[in-house]
Design brief:
This protein is of the alpha/beta class. The protein is built from eleven helices and twelve strands. It has helices at about 10-15, 30-35, 50-60, 80-85, 95-110, 115-125, 150-160, 205-210, 230-240, 260-265, 280-300; strands at about 1-5, 20-25, 40-45, 65, 85-90, 140-145, 165, 175, 190-195, 220, 245, 265-270.
Length: about 300
């Protein structure tokens, strides 16, 4: 029997479908997971507080596989897990559909200046003209990061007639390589960040990149706050050197009260809600976990398995 420690929230989705070689142990509190973790051979330690997740991983010295619904892994102790030989699978792609829809929401919000419409409604004012007159049709978007989320964004933008260029390690038609996109930034109306946060991507959008964007361009970040130099972005928005920013992620989170991003009328902050704007997150995560169980037992490659060196 393989001892498997799992959050009790997932019990209704998993219990009836677990194979007979799994011995599930369910936890409802951090105290319970800390007590159970040392015996875990498979762990699924997702909790709201990241420090609690880290502590559970640290305690799980027998663990061979850690599954998580988190897509971003920047806070996980990857070095410790690599040292112990732990396999890691994450939630990459589970929230891709709803996050891609949020990107379209952000683009339309800026194209039609929908926040101005809502403000007019709040004032009881009947506008005589549309505050936003841009169309997505025939605009140009750059997608940095072409994993599951980037691909879902691409599919949706195709329906709007947006010309999409993506950044991948291997360039080709409609694609730029990692060393090519910066020189082309001025061509795009939308710069969409969908990369994992790693040492390679940290602050990949800084003062120089923001200065290279065209004056009407909108930066859309649904990746991690750390991939943008936030101070440089605030300065750029205050000086209105780009069209705006749609930010589902910030540094830190929650964004402190009084932070300049709250008051800027050319910034929209959506409080890291994009992945939560759905009802199927746990269901999809549970289905993937169940699909991975046979591969784990057979010593094969699992779906959404993470390279612990690269961090994604």
């Amino acid at each position: 029997m393989t001892v498997t420690v799992i959050n009790a929230l997932l019990r209704p989705l998993l219990e009836a479908h677990l194979p007979d070689w799994i011995e599930p142990r369910w936890y409802a509190t951090k105290e319970e997971v800390f007590a159970l973790a040392p015996e875990a051979e498979i762990g699924w330690f997702d909790m709201y507080t990241k420090a609690d997740v880290i502590e559970a991983v640290r305690l799980a010295e027998r663990m061979r596989w850690l599954n998580t619904g988190y897509a971003g892994l920047d806070f996980f102790p990857l070095d410790l897990m690599a040292q112990r030989g732990v396999q890691l699978t994450n939630g990459a792609g589970i929230n891709a559909i709803t996050i891609a829809e949020y990107v379209v929401l952000g683009m339309l919000s800026f194209a039609k200046d929908y926040p101005a419409v809502l403000r007019a409604q709040g004032r009881g004012e009947w506008l005589k003209d549309a505050p936003g007159k841009r169309e997505l049709f025939e605009s140009k978007a750059l997608i940095l990061g072409y994993g599951a989320i980037g691909q879902e964004i691409d599919r949706r933008l195709a329906a709007f007639g947006v010309e999409v260029t993506k950044v991948r390690r291997n360039s080709g038609p409609g694609t730029l390589g990692p060393d090519e996109w910066r020189a082309r930034l001025g061509e795009f109306d939308w710069v969409i960040l969908a990369v994992p946060q790693t040492a390679e991507t940290e602050r990949m959008i800084g003062a120089a990149e923001l200065a290279a964007m065209n004056s009407n361009a909108v930066l859309i970040n649904i990746a991690r706050g750390g991939v943008v130099d936030q101070d440089a972005l605030v300065a750029t928005l205050e000086q209105r050197r780009i069209g705006g920013a749609f930010l589902d992620v910030t540094t830190p989170e929650p964004l402190p009260a009084g932070h300049p991003l709250w008051r800027l009328d050319n910034a929209v902050v959506t409080m890291h809600l994009s992945g939560r704007a759905q009802t199927r997150m746990y269901e999809r995560a549970a289905e993937r976990f169940l699909r991975n169980l046979p591969a784990f037992r057979a010593g094969g490659v699992m779906e959404s398995e993470v390279d612990l060196v690269r961090g994604y």
